[in-house]
Specification:
The protein contains five helices and no strands. The protein is an all-alpha fold. The longest helix has 111 residues. 3% of the residues are buried.
């Protein structure tokens, strides 16, 4: 199953926001698993590449060995011809033909290995780049998710703190209002008591200058002096 099919399977049925959040989390897990699988496949490809390169080295040795034998036997054939031994030269020539046939086969095998090695190296390099890119993307997504969660948590705490502060301020205002009401009630009670005892009338007479204010030490002394002079 391709990664897109797996993602579609993970997303299917997630219509609500909560469902989408679960699907997103599941999608990240699927991507992480795909990344692990890709890394495993990459390691296997590297192992296969080394095995193919080792086999190619063996074929290279055969090609080199056959080339050396051909050169060697060509020398033998030339010596046989120089000695006039046509039959021996022919036998050597037949042997050279066998070597050349084997060489052609081994060269074909070597060419095939070279193509496989070149292709595998390109695929491995591309896969490594893709894995690195995906690894970075997943890391960015996970880091962004953590930062957003931290911001949401901080915002929630700040909002709760503001709510508590507002609640405390409201409570303080209510307390101040109750205290003011009590002071007003006490003032009203004192005013009422003063009126009942005639205090209000006396205050009005004093303010009008009809009756004297409460006597002080100086006023008492002046009164006594007047009484003495009159006597």
């Amino acid at each position: 199953m391709s990664i897109f099919k797996k993602l579609f399977t993970a997303v299917r049925g997630g219509a609500t926001e909560v469902g989408e959040a679960i699907v997103d989390t599941q999608a990240i897990r699927i991507l992480e698993q795909e990344l692990r699988d890709s890394k495993t496949a990459l390691n296997e490809a590297k192992t296969n590449l080394t095995a193919i390169m080792a086999e190619k080295m063996g074929v290279d040795r055969k090609v080199k060995d056959l080339g050396s034998k051909i050169t060697e036997h060509e020398g033998y054939a030339m010596q046989a011809l120089e000695k006039g031994d046509e039959a021996l030269a022919t036998d050597v020539a037949n042997k050279i033909a066998e070597f050349e046939h084997d060489l052609s086969i081994q060269q074909g095998i070597r060419d095939g290995y070279e193509t496989k090695v070149s292709t595998l190296k390109k695929l491995i390099r591309q896969t490594e780049r893709n894995i690195q890119a995906m690894d970075r993307e997943i890391s960015v997504v996970k880091t962004t998710e953590k930062v957003q969660k931290a911001n949401d948590l901080a915002s929630a705490k700040f909002s709760g703190s503001n709510s508590s502060l507002r609640s405390a301020t409201d409570s303080l205002e209510r307390i101040k209002k109750r205290q003011q009401q009590r002071e007003d009630q006490a003032s009203a009670a004192m005013e009422l008591e003063s009126e009942e005892n005639g205090g209000d009338l006396q205050d009005r007479l004093k303010n009008a200058g009809i009756v004297d204010s409460e006597s002080s030490g100086m006023s008492v002394l002046e009164r006594l002096k007047k009484q003495k002079s009159g006597s």
